[in-house]
Structure formats: structure tokens, C-alpha cells
Amino acid sequence: MVSGKKFGKANLTAVDSSPNRAIVSSYDLIQAQTLPSNERPARAETVRTPMVMSGSGERILFVHDRPGDESALTGGTIARLRADGSRVVVLYPAARGETDAVALAATDDAAASAALAELGARTWHRLPPEPGLTQALHTAIDELGATAVVIGTVDEALRDCATTASHGAGLPVFLARTVRQAPGQRLIAIDVGDHLDQKLRALARFPARWSVTERTRTLADGSTDLITDTETFLRTDAPRPALAPPAPRPARLTIANRSLAGLGGLALGILFGVLGTIAHQATLTVFGAELPIGLAIAFVGIGALLIGLRLVVGDRFVVGLAAAGLLLTIFVLSLRGSGGSVLVPAGLPGTLWTVVPALIAAFVLAWPKLPPRRR
């Protein structure tokens, strides 16, 4: 029989040698269904449905106060999970430092191994006290690759710490609750009737805490409770991150601002038309070959101007005025002067200078306005 191990901040020593790692489906350990109002139980809001299974390889982590609680609160669930091929790990807090408590913990440890063996599980660990508790819970979740956490502890500090660690990892938490403990809340009920005998045998491994007669458990203080074939849980999911507010839309230009921006675009178009017409004939000789460096710079400048206005201003009216100023300037300067001078001589560079800017302007103006990308 395999005994449990303690683990601290750094690592988690697994003692489960079972090769079977298939486990129940998704975060829905159990998926409750809503009954019609005329068929709902009078005192309970739980719904008994079969467990949903898909063999998706999930692993379930159980957190309890001390050995024996896993059998009393979740023994049938553990047995059912293991029967369906799920991987199960049970965690208990560390024993206190007093001598009696340590001796009791040693007895509990032996009983825990025997009880879990009855349920088909063998892996359990002792959690260290704070300040290492939080890190140990994160380590347990990571080492197991847990996809859900079942919490049966009544210790508020341990419950809150385990819930926080689970939600921090994005995992759903199933709190072991009875109908009396969660009045008015919708519980998830698991039918463990097929594994009730296993649960009774596991409970019988703790004679120091209670005695079991048929389906009745008698505690040390004399109180009794009936062991039923249903175990109930309250599911809490990790809080979803708040959606980012939509990106603010750019403010629409007023008529006055639009007119001023249009005049600025017109002036820039005229300026780039003049500079490009003057520079487009410049060449650079490299190894005997003349490169039209002036034409290339002029085209890059025109493209940068029109694309920049389209991206920054986002108004086709402004871009259209800049393109109109550019093309009109090129047309005027390409005419023969009164003295017969020509700024745009005939030839390939001149032809390209009169045609390509118009194509660039048409492309930039025709490009569709894409909606802002959501993050």
C-alpha cells in the first residue's frame, strides 16, 4: 500500500503509479439540468443527473481537512471518478506541532492510505503550513495538471486559499455542500449508488472517528447520520476578466476644421508637385549606369504624403485636395513655358512623372476604410 508524502514549496512528489490518465469531461464534473417547476423537489434545488464523460484527459484535485473527510464527503465521487479512469489527488493540511496531534496524524495517514485504496485512489499529500501553503497549492495544481478542484474543508482559511489558487489558475471549484448548508442555491448532485459499498468500506477504515453500521455512521459524540447514494456540490467558476472598453472613435471634423485641413492638404500637394517636378530628372551614375534617383525619391515622397494624410486625418476629402493640388501642379509645370523652356521633357522619366502620381493618388483614395481592430 502506498503512503502519502509531504511536499513543500518547490516540488510535488507523486506516488500514484496508475498508468491510466483518462478522466471525466471538461470542467463540468457534473452537469445539472433544470426541471420544470411542477417537478422540482420541495426542499432541495439539486438535480440528480449522470456524470458527463468524454475521456478528455482531465485531472481532479481534492482538498480536505483531515483523512476520513474525503470518504465521508466525497468518497463516492472519488470512487466513481477512478472507476471512469480519472486521475485523483487528495490534499490534507499538515499536522500541528503538538505531540498528540502528530501521533493522531500518523494514525490518520495509515487510515488514509487504506481508505483511498478502497476508493481506487492512492495519491495523497500533506500540505505545509503558511507561508508555504499557497505555493504548495499552486505546485499541486501544476504538477497534476488539474482541470477542476473539489474542496471539502470547513477551515475557512484553507478553503479560501484553495479557492483563490484554483481560480487563479482558471479552474472551476466544487465545494462539498449539503442542501442544508446551501439553502436556496443550485447544487450539483452526483449519483454514487454504484460505489456506495466502496464508500462504506473506506469509512470503516476510521474507527477512531466513527463507527459504520450498514448505512448509518455514528460519530464519537453519539450523533448519527445516514449515508446516502448522493453527494452534492456547489460550483464556483473563476471570475472572467472584464472586457476591455471599445476603442473610442475619432471625433468627426467640423466644417471649419475640415476646410482648414483641406487647404493644408492642397498646399502640401502643390509643394510636393513643385519639388517632384524639379527633382524627377536627377540621376545617379553607378558603374556607368544611370539610376533615376530623383524619380524614385519623388514617388516615395508622394506616396508618403498621401498615405500619411489618409492614416492620420482619415478623411478622403483632405487626401483628394492634396492629390488634386499635386496633379494640377504637375500638369501646369509640364506645359511649355513662354520662352520655350520645359520642366518635364519628353521621354520615359517625364511620362512616368505624369502618370504614376495619378495612379498612386487613385490607389490611396480607393483603399477601403477598415474598422478598428478589437483587442
Question: What does this protein structure show overall?
Answer:
- By secondary structure, the protein is of the alpha/beta class.
- Helices cover 40% and strands 15% of the residues.
- α1 runs parallel beside α2 (99-119), α3 packs across α4 (156-168) and α7 packs antiparallel against α8.
- The model is unreliable at 5-56 (pLDDT under 50).
Number of domains: 2
CATH superfamily of the largest domain: LmbE-like
CATH topology tier name of the largest domain = Rossmann fold
Poorly predicted runs are 5-56
- Strand tally is 14
Radius of gyration: 38 Å
Q: What sequence of helices (H) and strands (E) makes up the elements?
A: EEEHEHEHEHEEHEEEEHEEHHH
CATH architecture name of the largest domain: 3-Layer(aba) Sandwich
Summarize the structure.
The protein is of the alpha/beta class and 375 residues long. It is built from 9 helices and 14 strands. Helix 4 links the parallel strand 6 and strand 7 (173-176).
Break the fold down into its secondary structure elements and pairings.
Elements: E1 5-6, E2 47-49, E3 59-63, H1 69-83, E4 87-93, H2 99-119, E5 124-127, H3 133-144, E6 148-151, H4 156-168, E7 173-176, E8 188-191, H5 196-203, E9 210-213, E10 216-219, E11 224-226, E12 230-236, H6 255-279, E13 284-286, E14 289-291, H7 293-312, H8 316-333, H9 348-366
